[in-house]
């Protein structure tokens, strides 16, 4: 196993990587860095731990949708109905953001 030094949101991390897994790890680092920077640049969340939690939720949500077949493009489907995943995710993210802002700490 080799170690790679990477940067995520300007901070260095030394990560273990199985032989031959460099490209996959670097791709994952790029996705996480992009997701975290996008949230930070939104301006509402500043704490690194909160940004990490929201980025993880967004990435997990995206992954859960990859295995599901899409009947029609989202634009053709029209507005989402109450209770659909996009509305539920928005409500969940709002609740998480509110709870984290009130508590001012993750744990």
From TrEMBL:
Activator of cell division through the inhibition of FtsZ GTPase activity, therefore promoting FtsZ assembly into bundles of protofilaments necessary for the formation of the division Z ring. It is recruited early at mid-cell but it is not essential for cell division. InterPro entries: Cell_div_ZapA-like (IPR007838), Cell_div_ZapA-like_sf (IPR036192), Cell_div_ZapA_N (IPR042233). Keywords: Cell cycle, Cell division, Cytoplasm, Septation. This is Cell division protein ZapA. Pfam families: ZapA. GO terms for biological process: division septum assembly; FtsZ-dependent cytokinesis; septin ring assembly. One of its GO terms (cellular component) is cytosol. It comes from the Bacteria. It is found in: Cytoplasm. Homodimer. Interacts with FtsZ. Its main location: cytoplasm. Residues 68-87 are annotated as: Disordered. The keyword Protease does not apply. It comes from Rhodoferax antarcticus ANT.BR. The keyword Cytoplasm applies.
